[in-house]
Amino acid sequence: MIEIETLAFSGFVLFVLIVIAIDLFLFQRNPHVMSVKQAARASIFWIFLALLVNALIFLWKGRTAGIEFFTGWLLEQSLSVDNLFVFLLIFGFFKVEPRYQRRVLVWGIVGALIMRGLFIGLGTTVLAAFQPIIYVFGAFLVYTGMNLARESDDNETDFNDSAVVRFVRRLLPFTDRYRDEHFFVWEAGRRLATPLLMVLVVIETTDLLFAVDSIPAVIAITKDPFIVFSSNVMAILGLRALYFLLAGVIDKIHYLKYALAAILSFVGLKMMTEDWLLEPILHITKDSLTIITLSFIIGTLSVAILASLLRNRRITRSQIRAGL
Description:
Elements: H1 4-27, H2 36-61, H3 63-93, H4 98-129, H5 133-150, H6 163-171, E1 184-187, E2 190-193, H7 195-219, H8 225-237, H9 239-246, H10 256-278, H11 286-321
Helix pairs in contact: 1-8, 2-3, 2-8, 2-9, 3-7, 3-8, 3-9, 3-10, 3-11, 4-7, 4-8, 5-10, 6-7, 7-10, 10-11
């Protein structure tokens, strides 16, 4: 008899494949720029789907699992906002027209889902076989959070200097310019890659680096493979709409990286101390830890956004006074 967990995984993956297929073959037929209004509607739709999955997990696995899913999903959404800023830099560097960015993001999401699935499977398998690895994950998150807080705001990045770009250029022949939304074209009897393919490769490589941080972060919330996978996937599916919704204001959330640094460090410390300090000595239950983590994420993000808004207002007033 097939286990419920296996059926749930199969059903969820089928649902994701259907949604992606509809997006690729129905909504991607005519390249166009997604307006802010369309992006807002799409974001609401993806949030609704995530909450629907959340409700089903509440009914299936109970209150604790439901809160863990929501916390993991919110954490992934938060980390994704920082990722979007890097995507914005990539599109700007390679001068990708806005109407073609949507296609790159959709295929980028497909690749991200595959990589996240492999990472989650590997991470949960290693954790089940060697429990002490959790301390390594936790320490890595704290280290990542500290590095993020110290990271410079200098965003002058030459992606052409990256090893991945140089390798792909040696591996494949490229056209000298974009060919609409195509990744490959036939010219003079040869199949050539277009610069849009290079943009996709850079996006995928960047997401691979992001996954190294985000997967352990969600594992710090829950060790349930289905919740880790589903919360990650639901956050990634809404990434494209979120990009077009926030593209114009991402750089204005000045304190976001500090909030994410604090969140990563917090969940890393939680991961390292949960089994020997928080539960056995301080008697903080698993349910309470999940709620505390969720509250910390919401509170930290709220403070960062509010502080960023106040900073932007002060800068605007200073510019007005200076006559700029």
